[in-house]
Amino acid sequence: MGAGSARGAAIGAALYGLATRAVRRLPRDMSLTSAATLATLDRTGPRRITDLAAVEGVTQPAMTALVRVLEESGLVERRGDASDRRVTLVCLTEAGASYVRTRRQAGVHAFERLIGELTDDEVEALAAALPALEHLAELENREGPEQ
C-alpha cells in the first residue's frame, strides 16, 4: 500500500484521532513534555539535556528549565558521567520511575475498558493488527519529533 493511498489516509486519520483523544484522557498533573521526558528517560536511561531536548523537540534552555522543575519535584536527578567528567546526565529517580509506571498503567487500563466494549470480532481484528501497530510505533520512534 502506498503512503499516499486513500486507505493509508483513512487509517492515519483513525489512528491520529484515537491518539488525540487518548492524550486528552491522560492525567493533567504535569505537561505532556514533562511526562514524555520522564518516559524517554525510563525507556532509554540517563541522557544529556541536549539529547533530551532533541528527542522532545524543544530548545536546550527549555529542557534545562523543565529538568530543573522535575528535579525540584524529586522525579529526576543530575549525575556526572563516569566516562566523561565534563558531562552531566539526567536520570530518573525511583519516584520518577514509579510515576512513569503508574501513568502507563492508567493508560493501559483505560484502553482495556474500551476494548471490553468491543465485539469479539473487533478484538480479534485488533489482536491481528498488533504486529503492524508495533512496527508503526518502531517507525515513529525512529523518526523522532515531528519531521
UniProtKB/TrEMBL annotation:
SUPFAM superfamilies tied to this protein: Winged helix' DNA-binding domain (SSF46785)
Keywords: DNA-binding
The keyword DNA-binding appears for this protein: yes
A Pfam cross-reference name: MarR
A GO molecular-function annotation: DNA binding
Domain HTH marR-type: 1-135
Domain of life: Bacteria
PANTHER family in alphabetical order: CONSERVED PROTEIN (PTHR39515), HTH-TYPE TRANSCRIPTIONAL REGULATOR RV0880 (PTHR39515:SF2)
Name of the protein: DNA-binding MarR family transcriptional regulator
